[in-house]
Amino acid sequence: MLVTASGLTLVPGGIFVPPAAEAALAARLSDLIGQTVGYEIYGHDRYGHALAQIFPSRSGDRSLSAEIVAAGQGAVLPDAIETPCLPELLRIEGEARAASRGLWGSVLRIRQAAEPKLATHAGTLGLIEGRVLSVGNTTTNHYLNFGRNWALDFTVMIPVRDAGSWGAGAPVPEELAGRKVRVRGLLEEWNGALIRAWHPAQIERIDDRD
């Protein structure tokens, strides 16, 4: 995080930085001490810190989040609220991933939904690919099921209240059965491995590329 002269605490938004890259992030933030930066605040985290796109003067129009993602020191993690420059961040991440830059291929990697023991990675960013076997619905949540054993297999939980506000062009949970998707989010251990999806950019249709 970065504290401005006015006492405002800024957090680079829209990204996940794994523990292995925290020292590199700290170094980047330290380099900004005493420097003039631009920033755009678009919300706050649960601690009251301002989620922002921070623009170091050395980088022109490129945000600090984009620098981190481009170096392979972090991956895109859309916030529950809209993240500015999200398509550009995803494009930059794709380039870093394809080039195996930074932590890609080691700490950061794409996993398959059928992999056993996905839940052992709880607390880390999950980039999970697989085919949705079925879709379950309750009054509060949609569930994308990637296996027949709901107590053990990978699942994506989508709050109904959030999916209802995703807008045109966003994935429709009920239409994802049988589709191959890539899901991103924090992995949890809950009846197997679980990702909660609040933002439409967390779910990407990839079967059209097959």
Automatic annotation (TrEMBL):
Highest taxon of source: Bacteria
Pfam families reported in the protein's UniProt record: SNase
Annotated TNase-like domain residues: 29-104
InterPro entries, per database record: SNase_OB-fold_sf, Staphylococal_nuclease_OB-fold
Name by which UniProt lists this protein: TNase-like domain-containing protein
Organismal lineage: Bacteria, Pseudomonadati, Pseudomonadota, Alphaproteobacteria, Hyphomicrobiales
